[in-house]
Amino acid sequence: MTLRSVFIANRGEIAVRIIRACNELGIRTVQAYSDADADSLAVILADDAVNIGPGPAAKSYLDIETVVTAAHNSGADAVHPGYGFLAENGDFADAVVAAGMTFVGPDGASIRLLGDKVAARKIAAEAGVPTVPGSVGRVADIDAARATVTEIGFPLMIKAAAGGGGRGIRVAHNIDEFETCFPQAAREAAASFGDDGLYIEKVIGAARHVEVQFLGDGQNYVHCFERECSLQRRRQKVWEEAPAFDLPGQVRTAMCDSAVALARAVNYCGAGTVEYLYDPITHEFYFIEVNTRIQVEHPTTEMITGVDLVQAMLRIAGGEPLAIHQDEIKISGHAIECRINAEDPEKNFMPRPGTVETLRVPEGANIRFDSMLYEGYTVPPFYDSLLGKLIVHGPDRDVCLARLRVALGELQIDGLPTTVALHRLLTEDPAITGREFDTRFLEGWIERQFQP
């Protein structure tokens, strides 16, 4: 079955990205939008658009019944969830299928299975993927957790079993911190995910965050190599690269092969990402989690492999077998992505929506700007602060960084504060140019740069 019409159950730059992928495949698009997004670029570009409710996401983009009903009534034969909102909600995927449509992504059972961090750890271990030392499964309560603490020692992380996006996580360096953090993590997990289940993991010091992109059609599986995602603030990615730098060939092979093995173990269908912690001293890597949807940073992979991941998702959802073999996927050069957010670094990165007065976007064969912006557009206050992503490609990392500096110098977004200046500073920092950073770097760097 080839998809004829896709309902986009998302907003912002990822909605625009999906529309453009559909246009190239000759697929009709129907854009969902809230009252706050009536004049969004996605609405302007889509073939049709449907209002799904008020601005707050809980009353629009997160309302499963409303979204599924709108999609069904629009005549769409498939729903693309993008990322965020309902993208990793197994009940949503099931509801889409129950309404007679195709969900562009894995089925609800796979989403629930891999979305449970404890269950995913178990699957990873059974597939031969190294896992971080920690609890075998969920810890029943704080008393049961103490046994794991005694076994693995400090520092450790208390993590939400149903977590994601850095929420429901606490780090404890001693028993007193553990006693305080455990109930805090449980409360945050319950509030964020409706599930207060927790598990324990050892903290891997000086680790880098590396993730592997994979595709599967339920029978055939390939990886599209890895991305470096170590520059994070409050466990939220800020800057991503592909491929990961200074990764030994045997480590790259083992890491990528393990991601494919995990995908095969669950008969995965669609695009997904396996995230790892990598120790650059010992060259060991450990499974963190699986993301069962397209990632914000997917353009870096597309730039170095030439594989259109969004189109691949749509083709797989339409019933086509995976059209590319592993030996056809090669790494070409280096790519870096900067997330441009509507935040004020001088005010502790406070989100600052506003109206785009001037927009000047850098151009060139090796530059890509995925965004939802146009001059005169007013960024609504209800959603994530991401405005767009500047992606630059070069034959190697040094050339890529040089091109990125030029592109950031040309990028102009006036009318609201953004993180463009932060990225300009990062391109000049010796730790960035010298590849001497890990997941702990950016927090300290920001404090030195922007705190009084």
Protein structure class: alpha+beta
Q: What is the assigned CATH homologous superfamily of the largest domain? A: ATP-grasp fold, B domain
**Number of separate strands:** 20
C-alpha end-to-end distance: 59 Å
Sequence of strands across the biggest β-sheet = 13-12-9-10-11-14-19-18
- Count of the separate structural domains: 3
CATH class of the largest domain: Alpha Beta
Query: Which fold name fills CATH's third level, the topology of the largest domain?
Result: D-amino Acid Aminotransferase, Chain A, domain 1
Question: Strand content of the residues, in percent?
Answer: 15-25%
CATH architecture descriptor text of the largest domain: 2-Layer Sandwich
- Unreliable residue stretches: none
Shape: globular
Largest sheet: 8 strands, antiparallel
Percent of residues in helices: 25-40%
Number of helices: 15
- Give the C-alpha Rg: 21 Å
Mean pLDDT: 95
If you had to describe this structure to a student in words, what would you say it looks like?
The radius of gyration is 21 Å and the shape is globular. It has helices at 12-25, 41-45, 64-73, 90-98, 108-115, 117-126, 142-152, 175-193, 249-265, 298-305, 309-317, 397-410, 420-428, 430-433, 441-450, and strands at residues 5-8, 28-33, 48-51, 78-80, 102-103, 156-160, 169-172, 198-202, 208-217, 221-233, 236-242, 269-278, 285-291, 334-341, 343-344, 350-351, 358-360, 367-371, 386-394, 412-414. 35% of the residues lie in helices and 25% in strands. The N and C termini lie far apart (59 Å). The strands form five sheets. It has an eight-stranded antiparallel sheet, with helices on both faces. With 452 residues, the protein is an alpha+beta fold. It folds into three domains: 5-104, Rossmann fold (3-Layer(aba) Sandwich); 133-202, Dna Ligase, domain 1 (2-Layer Sandwich), CATH 3.30.1490.20; 208-450, D-amino Acid Aminotransferase, Chain A, domain 1, CATH 3.30.470. The mean pLDDT is 95.
